[in-house]
Every structure is written in C-alpha cells, then in structure tokens.
Amino acid sequence: MTNVRALAAETLFQVVDKGQSLSAQLPYAAQKLSPKDKALLQQICYGVLRYLPTLEHYCQQLLDQPLKGKRRVFQFLLYVGMYQLQYMRTPEHAAVAETVNALQSMRAPGLKGLVNAILRTFQRQFSELQESAARVSVCQYNHPGWFMKKLQAAYPEHWQDILAANQEQAPMWLRVNRAHYSVNEYSELLDDAGIEHSLEPRFEDGIVLDKPCDVYSLPGFREGACSVQDAAAQLAARYLDPQDNERILDACAAPGGKTCHILELAKANVDALDADSERLLRVEDNLQRLELKANCIHADASTPNEWWDGQAYDRILLDVPCSATGVIRRHPDIKWLRRNSDIDDLAVLQKKILENIWPLLKPGGTLIYATCSVLPAENSEQVANFLDCTTDAIHQPLHESDTPTTPGLQLLPGLSDGFYYAKITKQQ
Ligand SMILES: C[S@@+](CC[C@H](N)C(=O)[O-])C[C@H]1O[C@@H](n2cnc3c(N)ncnc32)[C@H](O)[C@@H]1O
User: Among residues 233, 284, 287, 405, which one has the fewest Cβ atoms lying within 10 Å of its Cβ?
Assistant: First the structure.
C-alpha cells in the first residue's frame, strides 16, 4: 500500500485503537513513500492526533453509529479527510477526492459512496459542526480530561498555556559539539549554508533553527559537528558538570543524547545503562557517529546488585522513565496512550530507581534527577520525599525558587520542551 492517506488511516488506527507508539509506526508506514509523501504522512498523523476529540465529535454527529470491527480503520480515514478540510491548505475538492481514492488501495471501493457523502456533508455543515464542538470542553482543548485536571491543580494560572503549547509544532534545536566548534563558529557555518537560526544565551550549547531541515543538510553532521536535541534536554549534561577522568553513570541512557553530550564536555569514563536492549543499540550508533566511547550496559537501574561492580561514581545522571507529558508536542500520541493510572506506577518505579541508585554515588558526588514530565508527582513531590527520607542527601538549588519543599527546576513547553531537573549532592 503506497497511498499516503490510506497509510495515515492505518497508522492512526494502530496508534489509537491498538496502543502502538507513533514513533514506531510512522517509519514503518513511510518506508515506500517519496520524501514529499513522508512529510505529508507525518503532518496528517500528527494533526489528527492533535485534534482527535474534535474529529471524533464531528464523526459522532455525522454517522448513525461509529464504524466498528473490520470497518474501524475507515473511521480514521474520515478523520484524515476532515483534518485536511479543516486544518490544512489542501484544496477542498482534492482533499475529498484523494481521501475517497484511498479506499481503492485499502481494497474497499464499496465504501466510496459513504466516505464521499460524509465528507461532503462535513463541508456543507461545517459552521454548525464547529459551533457544536466548541460547546464540548474536551474539544476545546483536545487533551484527555484526567490530564487537564492534573495540570489545573499543578498550574492554576498556566494550564491553558501548557495545553496550547502542546498543540504547536516543536522547534528544531541543535546541540553544537563543543569538542569541535564554539556555538558562534557553528552559527557562522549555518549562515554560510543559508540555514536561518538563532542563539539563546540560556542554552549555552544550543542553536534553534527557524525551520526544521534534513539533518544531512547541516554542516558537518555526518562528522559529528552537531546533534539534534531539544534545548531543555541539553541542560542535563551542563547541570551534571562532568570533569575529565571522572567515573560517571548515565543510568537511563537510551537513545544516548545526554550520554554523548556528557562525553563532548569531558573525557570521562561513562557507564551508559538502559533496560531496553534495542534502545541501547541506538546509544552505540550515536556514540559511533560522534566518535565517542562509553561502556554500554544492558541492565535494570532499579536492581544495581545485579550489575554494579562496587566502584562508586563521581556523578550520576538519572533521566528516569516518565509520562513524557512535557514532550506532547513532539509525540502527540502520548495524550491518547497514557492513562491516569500510569502516573502512579511511574512514580513508584522512579522512587525505586532513585533510592537504589543513591548508594552508588561517592560522598561529595553529584546526582541529577531529570524527567520530561510536567507533573509534580514525578518531579518536585518525588524529589521532596527523597530529600525528606535521605539524611546524606543535600539539595542544591538550580534557581531562586528551587527550595527543599518544592525542589527542582520545572521548564514548561514553549521555547524548549517541558522538562524537570533537580540537583542533589551527597554529604562528604
Ligand atoms: C527518558 S528516556 C532516557 C533518554 C536518554 N537519557 C537520552 O537523553 O537520550 C528513559 C529511558 O529509561 C529506560 N528505562 C526504563 N526503565 C528502566 C530501568 N528500570 N532501568 C534502566 N533503564 C530504564 C528506557 O528504556 C528509556 O530508554
């Protein structure tokens, strides 16, 4: 199947109904497509996931009952058609005709009449449908109710800004390899290549591009001159502050963005550990491209008795598994794949990893706890509990409002992704 709209419908069905992750499904679906169609496939899938409740509402109004069983995938084809009609610049006749044509490659030409009729009615009744969607709160924000409640409780003044930022396309940030270039030197190379960008002093290794581009068009990308990494993620290695010859543990390392950054900043001995062997291979790929060396270990960070050699670490980065609610704009499927109950389960795992890794840190050593979550249960509450129960843990503020009762630095999605950091040192 190489029809881009048919592939989009199938991909969305796999994500929303079958619980598959978009980042796993998209490359699979895009295999046989031209670069232009790949971009269109991505745009449609991201867009439908961003506005899923609104599109579901339209279908509820227009279909007697939702399509079920073997016909379920065609409900997603209707979302694809409606998304193009409402949110993309596709000419209306082309959006309808191309969506109806997709049924040919989905081997369901018998449904052409139905899909055509629904999309035409959608066009005719668009104003009324839009008004009725505006009266439904989940369509107003296009996020799950449980998540909105948690955000409202944590950010009574900013929750709507966070939801709005989650609906935007994320900027493309580069991390300049400081072992090769200064940020200003690399900025000049980008100027020479005609790639428009800007610098942000808060993120000392970062450059943000005006428009996303193919990585291979970036000067020296193949040779490791830069990597693609969000600005917030670039703070991890800077807060860790690695020094030459130190023994460092990156306990949840895959795919290795932060491992490589640590090694770009210092000639350290890094153990890069991850519980997922396939993801660990990506750490090795990234190290290879950047010509860096780390000791990759496939193991569970919550059970160090199974793999630790007994030699304490000078510094530890704990970029723990989390809800990823700070990176929804890059992974809009998170909104529909995460469940409220996942947050408690993740908090239990994070607590276990933090408590069991702590004895591996040397007296006087530094630990950075990080998540790409915006939820306090995974962040400030987690670290506050740890500080309360751990007598040799010393809280190190990262900014003025970082206190032992609400520890850490919480970045919200905007210029960078949503991220959380806390810095803890061990008493000598
Ligand atoms: C947020 S990601 C890490 C991103 C990585 N630090 C980077 O910058 O590229 C969390 C990682 O934790 C790993 N993980 C989950 N549970 C783990 C465990 N019990 N022990 C070690 N790694 C674990 C996941 O496989 C995932 O790769």
Answer: 405
**Is 74 within 8 Å of 9 (Cβ atoms)?**
yes
Residues annotated within the binding site are 252-258, 274, 300, 319
Q: Write out the two tokens for 37.
A: 């169609």
- Whose alpha carbon is nearest atom 17 of ligand 1? 275
257 C-beta closer than 6 A to ligand 1: yes
Q: Domains in the chain, start-ordered, CATH in brackets?
A: 4-141 (1.10.940.10), 173-228 (3.30.70.1170), 235-426 (3.40.50.150)
How far, in Å, CA of 136 to CA of 127, rounded? 15
- What residues have CB less than 8 Å from 197, skipping those under 6 apart? 174, 187, 190, 207, 208, 209, 210
Could you confirm whether 372 is annotated as catalytic?
Answer: yes
Of 364, 379, 353, 271, the C-alpha closest to 314 is 364
Q: What does residue 392 show for φ and ψ, rounded to 5 degrees?
A: -95, 10
Ligand 1 neighbour 282 (Cβ under 6 A): no
The mean of the pLDDT values for the chain is 96
> For residue 276, what pLDDT is reported?
97
Residues 208, 198 contacting (CB under 8 angstroms): yes
Q: Tokens in use for 140?
A: 């107003």
